[in-house]
Amino acid sequence: MIMDEGKNNSASQIASGIINPVTGRRLVKTWMIDDVMPFAAQSYNQFGEYAKPVSVIDFFSAPDVEVAFNKRLEEKAEYLSPIKEKDAWRHYFHFDFGAGAIEPCFLIDVKSFLQNRREHWQRKEVFIQERFEENELKFTEEGIFCGDIEAQTIIYCDGIAAANSKYFNRLPFAPNKGEALIVEIPDLPAGHIYKKGMSLVPWKPGEFWVGSTYQWKFENDLPTQTFRENAENWLKSFCKMPFEIVDHLAAVRPATIERRPFIGLHPLFKNIGIFNGMGTKGVSLAPYFAQQFATYLLGESTLLPDVDIKRFEKVLSR
Fold first, then answer.
1. Which residues contact 147 (CB under 8 A, 6 or more apart)?
2. Is the peptide bond before 237 cis (omega within 30 degrees of 0)?
3. How many domains are there within the chain?
């Protein structure tokens, strides 16, 4: 049985859906990307055309960024390639330095995928749209009770809310807030993701997602005027096409200090588990590790030590 209150501003609901195989200014391969990216694309597309291969056009924001990209090209780094007909992009964008391509990447239609799965679970009568209240859990010899639901095991897949759970609040979460604008730019080709510091990501026909930020200090999960002004100014300085802001999104990501997920069963409460801590990489990591966790719960495999919460056994056992 799946219980979810249906928040519109959960991190998943407002995610851009990008799976990018490289990261950082040094353009190194993202952790486990050779395994998780093809697995994710195949997994999403089992349910429909939710994973679309795209390229990121990376417009260099400074000379040293261009030097770093070209150096990686000389090293024949995977997923990087030069841009052909670079000047053709000057019709759409202002940029002072060069540009390169990151490919293949994938763009996941997360919002449509989640709605599809929700409707599927509702038809199968295994979904309840309701806020989970931890203090209503009851434990007996027969199992776990939550209202009228009786189960053998409960798995916390509740994003940043798990950081306040009495069972998992000792895990080293590092929540950070992200914001994005949704803008209409009907004259901009939607076949690529455009990056120059922030990113322009195809969202709906004629619309793009603009973001995002990583705010480590924040008062709430609401949109801020500061971000709106900064993102709008960035867009004016980068994009030559007319645009109109149609929405402003914000959410808190369940990131972790060591940038690795939290997966497994509690060391003291063996029927309480967690699947969390995906941070900014949830779109790529979740399918792969969901499969691994499922087979682990069935006794058919082990968890990767990097994600297994056994690494925090002493902390969780206090």
1. 136
2. no
3. 1
CB neighbours of residue 80 within 10 Å: 19
- pLDDT per residue as tens digits for the range 182-196: 999 999 999 999 999
Distance from C-alpha of 237 to C-alpha of 239, rounded to nearest angstrom: 6
* Residue 255 in tokens: 């990131």
d(CA 281, CA 254): 10
In a domain, 201, yes or no: no
- From the number of C-beta atoms within 10 Å of its C-beta (0-12, 13-18, 19+), residue 61 rates as middle
Is 271 inside any structural domain? yes
The verdict on residue 17 lying in a domain is no
Q: What is the predicted pLDDT for the residue at 84?
A: 78
- Cα–Cα dist 121/112, whole Å: 14
The mean per-residue pLDDT over the stretch 230-234 comes to: 97
Residue 155 sits in which domain range?
A: 132-173+257-316
Q: 267, 26 in Cβ contact below 8 A?
A: no
pLDDT at 91: 95
- Confidence at residue 231, expressed as pLDDT on a 0 to 100 scale: 97
CA–chain centroid gap for 42, Å, is 17
193: amino acid identity, one letter = I
Question: Does 53 reside within a domain?
Answer: no
Helix (H) or strand (E) holding 3: strand 2-4
Instruction: Assess whether pLDDT exceeds 80 at residue 255.
Output: yes
In order of 157, 240, 296, the CA distances from 107 in angstroms are: 23, 24, 29
Distance CA 279, CA 187 (A): 33
Q: Determine the longest span between alpha carbons in the chain, in angstroms.
A: 70
DSSP letter (8 states) at residue 37: H
pLDDT at residue 187, rounded to an integer: 93
Which residue bears the tokens 């966790």?
293
Tell me the pLDDT tens digit for each residue of 21-69. 998 878 899 999 999 999 999 999 999 999 999 999 999 989 998 999 9
Give the Cα-Cα-Cα angle 253, 129, 166 (nearest 5 degrees): 50
Average pLDDT over residues 153-181: 96
